[in-house]
Design goal:
By secondary structure, this protein is α/β, with parallel strands linked by helices. It folds into two domains: about 230 residues, Spore Coat Polysaccharide Biosynthesis Protein SpsA, Chain A (Alpha-Beta Complex); about 70 residues, 3 Solenoid (UDP N-Acetylglucosamine Acyltransferase, domain 1), CATH 2.160.10.10. The chain is about 15% helix and about 30% strand. It has six helices and 27 strands. A hairpin with a 2-residue loop joins strand 4 and strand 5.
Amino acid sequence: MKNIIALDNYSSSTKLIKVKKAFVLGAGLGSRLKKLTEKLPKPMIPVFGKPLIEYSFEHLSESGINQFIVNTHHCAEVYNDHFKNDHYKEMPITFKHEPALLDTGGGIDNVSELLSSDPFLVYNGDILTDLPIINLLNHHNDNKNAVTLALRTNGSGKHIALDSKSGKVTDIKNLLHSGNTGSYQFTGIYACNPEFLNYLQHNKKHSVIPVFLKLIKEKLLGAIVIDDGKWWDLGTRTNYLDAHQILSESKFPNYLIDYKSNWKRNRSEESQIAPDAKIDKASYIGKGASIGSGAHIINSVIWPNSKVIAESQLVRCVVRNGQIAKGKLENIDI
């Protein structure tokens, strides 16, 4: 595994520092996913039987980042139950609970004592991507920015204005009245130098956006456009189901190519499926789930220990842990 390095641009002498830590945002309520996150934190929703946050860990570790910090709030016990020894594989995870939500800026400040020594990465917990993080880290390494954002050319939320010559962000949603509402999608991934922590409000709930605006004024917020790889925000059920369909038809994500030859198989080996049930490739049947005789499952995700009654037909449905689905259902979460 390669070590990734970043420059400490604020020291009197240039030195190379390994980027080892990532703060993965895991405390959000997942309100756009509605029923799906009633009993799960958003980053723990299963994607082909694997919690979404584990894709983040795999992606980060590919770039040499092997220490994770995750903030928690809603259904925090789910993290503890799943990661019983506070590790993912050999890599340590530090969970930091927020009894009251602190938003992005407050969440980063709340773990600042764990991030204050070296450059670090911040990674949204509801994204699924295999964009090359190394490009972001190299760009951050080569430029004197407190923070460097990873951007995409395409996306539904193109709110970042970027001066392509200087590589500096000039506005966000025209909040600085530059007249530029933005042309680039923010991916939710950004590299930070420790000095960024000094711009945060201590022990106070706040968004990171006003902090970014201050950095823009001081010309300390940079960005790089990375269109290689794929990127999704899985914060909606539509995107969640679409991702299963696209994943089943592609080699994405490239960091899991060698994970398991059959990891995209549409069922857990510990599920019970009637021989005459039909399940398309864009669906997944979770561990301990059962599918009755004659059932037809189309682009649907059946979570662990749930049940689909015989002769039922499900189209773009999600059946949550331990629930029962019956009849002809379409675009319904059970």
